[in-house]
Write a structure and sequence with these properties.
Elements lengths: L4 E3 L3 E3 L4 E6 L8 E7 L6 E7 L4 E3 L7 E6 L4 E6 L8 E8 L15 E2 L3 E6 L1
Parallel strand pairs: 2-11
Antiparallel strand pairs: 1-3, 3-8, 4-5, 4-9, 5-6, 7-8, 9-10, 9-11
């Protein structure tokens, strides 16, 4: 059973930074891993994706502020978030899939494995 576990969520002021981590002990991420977020009353959106070949993609709203990276030695995915804005508030989820096909499109339907989420709150 796949168990993705996120951590690093917190409450920060606008302009602050956070680093989220997602441990993938089962090495599910042979193809693709990604970060999604969901604000209350809104659909879950793909924030950033990391394909097995190292290619990344980002939502326009976070381009230039967020950086996704991975460390295969510890089976961990990271999301470095800088210059945070109140609209970045939400539950952040890690997702993984064996397939890398269409990884960079960041569609929820493409991912079979999900974590429980970690809350990020940005105050103005």
């Amino acid at each position: 059973q796949v168990q993705l576990k996120e951590s690093g969520g917190d409450s920060v002021q606008a302009g602050g930074s956070l680093r989220l981590s997602c441990v993938d002990p089962g090495r599910t991420s042979s193809g693709c891993m990604a970060w999604f977020r969901q604000a209350p009353g809104k659909e879950r959106e793909g924030v950033a994706a990391l394909r097995s070949d190292g290619r990344t993609s980002y939502a326009e709203s976070v381009e230039g502020r967020f950086t996704v990276s991975g460390d295969n030695t510890v089976n961990t995915l990271y999301l470095e978030m800088n210059n945070l804005k109140p609209e970045d508030t939400g539950m952040y989820y890690c997702a993984a899939d064996h397939s890398s096909a269409r990884c960079l499109e960041r569609r929820t339907s493409m991912f079979d494995y999900w974590g429980q989420g970690t809350q990020v709150t940005v105050s103005s």
